[in-house]
Amino acid sequence: MSNKGQKVWKRAKGVIPGGNMILSKRPEMFLPDKWPAYYSKAKGCYIWSLDNEKFIDMSLMGVGTNILGYSNDEVDKSVIENISKGNMSTLNCSEEVELAEKLIEICSPWGEMVRFARSGGEANAIAVRIARAASGKDNVAICGYHGWHDWYLSANLQSKDELNNHLLDGLDINGVPKNLTNTVFPFEYNNFNQLEEIINSKDIGTVKMEVVRNIQPEEGFLDKVREITKKKNIVLIFDECTSGFRETFGGISKKYNINPDMSMFGKALGNGYAVTAVVGKEEIMQNAQSSFISSTFWSERAGSTAALKTLEIMEKTESWKIITNKGKYIKKCWQELANNFSLNIEISGIDALPMFNIRSESKFQYKTFITQELLKKNILASNSVYLSIAHDDNLIDFYLEELSGVFTKIRDCENGKDINDLLEGPVCQVGFKRIN
C-alpha cells in the first residue's frame, strides 16, 4: 500500500529539525513507520491523507483545536469574507475589540481586560511577563504543562528531573539561559502542602497551573490555592489553553467556582484558526504597559474573526454539553470493554477529553497495537480522544466496536501471548507527562 505521507516525513526530517513544528503530531508518537503523517483535506471529523484515503479522527482533532469539527462552514465563511477585504493593514482590526469584549463578558466578574496572541506558548509567556511585572517578583510556582519558552523550561536548570511529571523525563534544555536557575518551581497537583512550602521559602510572586486535566481536584485543594495566593498577594494564573470551552462556556474554573487573577485560552477558541487570549483583572493586566509585549501577527484579522464566530456557534449549540456527554459515554464503554476482557484499565481526563491506559508492563506496546489495528479500519486513534460536535453517535459506536476486537487480542497477550509478535513496526514514543 502506498504511503506518500511516510515518504514526505522522511524528506521532512532532512530539512526540518525534528521533522515538524509540534511534538504531538510526529508519527513516532503514534505508529512510527506507518502513520499517514500528512493530510490533503479535513472536514467534520474526517481527514484525507496524501493518498486520498479517508480516515475518522478519533485522536487529536488538530491537537484539540476543532471542537466544532474541521473546516466548519460558518467559521470558514466568516473568515473568508473578512480576509477578502484584507487580513492586515496599517490600521487595527475592530474584531479584536469585539472579541475582547465578548471574553470579558464570558469571564465576568473577574475578567476585565484582554491581550491576544496566536499560540498557547506565547499566551503563557505573556501572562507570566505581566504577572511578574504586577507582583514585582521573578519567582513562579507551576503545576502542569505551559509551553516551550525559556521561563518554563528553566525549571529543569535546577535538575533535569524537575519537569519529569509535567512534560518529559530528563528533558534537555540547551539554550535556556543559566541565570534563570531557581526562578520556576514545580509542585504536584493536589499537593497543597508542597505548594505552601514553596511559597513560604521561595519568594513566589506568581502561581500558574492547569485547573484540572487527568485527575480531579481533591476537596478544598483549589480553594486553598486561591486562599493562600490572595493572602500572600500572589498572582494566580489558570492555564486553560486545553481545558477552556470543553466542559463549560469559558474556563473550566467555572465548574469549581474558583476565580483566578488571569487565565489563558487557546486551542478551541478559533476552531483551527490561530488565536489565543490572556484574560485578567484590570489592575494586573495594565502592567503590560510597563513592559514590552508586541508582535506584528497578533494583529491579523483571521484569528479574531474565527474566534467571534466560533464562540457564537458554541453558545448557540451548547457545544461543551455535547462533547462532555459524548466523552462520558466513551469512558463508560471503555470500562465495559475492559471488564468484558478482564483488562486492568485506568480511565482519566476531563469528560470532554477522555483518555485511558492499560495497566501493564506492555502498555506502550498495547497503545501502538491499538493504533496499528484501528488504522487498518481507517480510524486514526491512540489512547485519548479530543471530542468534537462532529463526532456523531454512529461513528463513535463504530470506533468502539473495532476497539473491542483489538481488546480481545490484548486480553490474549495478558494471558501469555507475546504482543511483540503482533506489532508490525517499532513501538510508539512516550508522550507528554500530565500530572493533573
Instruction: Please tell me how large the radius of gyration is.
Output: 22 Å
CATH superfamily of the largest domain: Type I PLP-dependent aspartate aminotransferase-like (Major domain)
Distance between the termini: 40 Å
What share of the residues lie within helices? 25-40%
Number of E-state strands: 13
Mean pLDDT: 96
Percent of residues in beta strands:
5-15%
Query: Strand order within the widest sheet?
Result: 4-10-9-8-7-5-6
Q: What order do the helices and strands follow?
A: HEEEHHHEHEHEHEHEHEEHHHEEHEH
Which residues form runs of ≥5 with pLDDT under 50?
none
Outline the biggest β-sheet: 7 strands, mixed
Highest CATH level, the class of the largest domain: Alpha Beta
By CATH, the topology of the largest domain is Aspartate Aminotransferase, domain 2
Query: How many helical stretches?
Result: 14
Task: Describe, in plain words, how this protein is organized in 3D.
The protein is α/β, with parallel strands linked by helices and about 425 residues long. The protein has two domains: about 170 residues, Aspartate Aminotransferase, domain 1 (Alpha-Beta Complex), CATH 3.90.1150; about 240 residues, Type I PLP-dependent aspartate aminotransferase-like (Major domain) (Aspartate Aminotransferase, domain 2, 3-Layer(aba) Sandwich), CATH 3.40.640. The protein has 14 helices and 13 strands. A seven-stranded mixed sheet has the order 4-10-9-8-7-5-6, sandwiched between helices. The protein has a four-stranded mixed sheet with strand order 1-2-3-13. Strand 11 and strand 12 form a beta hairpin. Helix 12 runs parallel beside helix 14 and helix 13 packs across helix 14. The longest helix is centred in the C-terminal third of the chain and has 22 residues. The protein is globular. It starts with a helix and ends in a 22-residue tail after the last helix.
